[in-house]
Design brief:
Layout (H helix, E strand, L loop, with lengths): L2 H17 L7 H15 L6 H10 L11 H18 L7 H12 L16 H14 L2 H8 L7 H15 L10
Helix pairs in contact: 1-3, 2-3, 2-6, 3-5, 4-5, 5-6, 7-8
């Protein structure tokens, strides 16, 4: 992917996330997922700009739909539909569009359902793992628990100290630890 296309995609995604996006799917989240993906990508043959573009568009669902149980379970359908229209704005090859749509459409539900893409293409595996690693990030865990009743705070400590370090590889296509 050409750098100017990546820059255009990042700019458009930035505009969309600035106007409507929840705290868990904001620009900071996209940047953290990108950082994770680029780290993982160093061990694999990938187009870095394409990988970065995939990371920036993977949660466009949340610029249109409010977070909630319905959006969570229909995210695969929503993101595919959204990306078909969104990617028409850019002069991207058909192959790159297919890679982006496939990776974003299959990135969901690694955690907590362990719906992995072990046989998928490398972009799909890396995106899903990068997003999962972000789910296990300290700040993200804190943001998840901040709106829950105080009596559940021991669960946060349990998750951070025991579950995250022991089980993170269980939720990854390309185990890291």
């Amino acid at each position: 992917m050409e750098k100017y296309l990546l820059d255009d995609i990042k700019r458009k995604v930035g505009e969309r996330t600035a106007s409507k996006c929840d705290k868990r799917h904001n620009l900071g989240h996209l940047q953290n997922v990108t950082k994770n993906a680029l780290t993982i990508s160093k061990e694999h043959s990938t187009d870095t700009a394409l990988m970065e573009a995939i990371c920036y568009v993977h949660d466009l669902t949340y610029t249109i739909y409010d977070p909630g149980i319905k959006t969570y379970f229909l995210e695969r359908k929503y993101i595919t539909w959204i990306l078909v229209g969104f990617l028409k704005e850019f002069d991207i090859s058909g192959n790159e569009k297919n890679i982006i749509i496939n990776a974003c459409g299959k990135h969901t539900h690694s955690f907590p359902f362990r719906r992995l893409n072990k046989k998928g293409d490398i972009y799909t595996k890396i995106l899903q793992d990068a997003d999962t690693l972000e789910d296990f990030d300290e700040e993200r865990i804190d943001s998840f628990f901040e709106n829950l009743p105080g009596f559940l705070s021991p669960l946060k400590r349990l998750f951070k100290r025991m579950i995250r370090p022991r089980f993170i590889n269980f939720f990854l296509n390309l185990p890291r630890y």
